[in-house]
C-alpha cells in the first residue's frame, strides 16, 4: 500500500507549526517542563558567566536537549496512555513509570555534566 505524502514546502512549514504547538503546550502546561526551562535558562547564564569552552557548550546543549526531548516524549506517552486507558490499569501505570524513569535518567546525566563543567 502506497501512502501519498505532501512534500510541498507549505506542508513542511505546517508540520513545523504542529511541532511548535507541542513545544508551547509543554512549557505552558507541564510543571516539570517549566522547571527544566528555568534550569536551562540558569545554565545558559552560568555558561556565559563562567565563559565555558566550545566543547563544554556542546556538552551543556546536548544535556539540555536530552532532558527536554525526554520530557516531551514522556508527556506524549502520558497523554496517549490517558486516552488508551483512562481508568486505573497496572500496565499503564508501569508504562508511565518507565517513561518517567527515562526523564529521571537524563536529568541525572545532565546534573553530572553540569557538576563536571561548573565545579
Ligand atoms: N491509568 C493509570 N493506571 C495506573 N497507574 C497510573 C495511571 N495513571 C497514572 N498512574 C500512576 O501515577 C503516576 C503519575 O501519573 P500521571 O499521569 O499523573 O503523571 P504525572 O504525575 O502528571 O507526571 P509528570 O509530573 O511527569 O507529568 C504514574 O507514573 C503511574 O505510576
Automatic annotation (TrEMBL):
Residue positions of the active site: 71
GO biological process, one term: phospholipid biosynthetic process
Topology versus the membrane: Multi-pass membrane protein
Cellular component, GO annotation: plasma membrane
Binding locations of a divalent metal cation: 30, 78
Single GO MF annotation: kinase activity
Cofactors demanded by this protein: Mg(2+)
InterPro entries: DAGK (IPR000829), DAGK_sf (IPR036945), UDPK (IPR033717)
Cofactor binding annotation: Mn(2+), Zn(2+), Cd(2+) and Co(2+) support activity to lesser extents.
Record's keyword annotation contains Methyltransferase: no
Keywords associated with the record: ATP-binding, Cell membrane, Kinase, Lipid biosynthesis, Lipid metabolism, Magnesium, Membrane, Metal-binding, Nucleotide-binding, Phospholipid biosynthesis, Phospholipid metabolism, Transferase, Transmembrane, Transmembrane helix
Residues holding substrate: 71
Residues binding ATP, per UniProt: 18, 30, 78, 96-97
Chain segments annotated as transmembrane: 33-51, 57-77, 98-118
Keyword hit for Manganese: no
Pfam families with a match to the protein in the record: DAGK_prokar (PF01219)
Compartment(s) where it occurs, according to its Swiss-Prot or TrEMBL record: Cell membrane
Family: Belongs to the bacterial diacylglycerol kinase family.
The name this protein goes by in its record: Diacylglycerol kinase
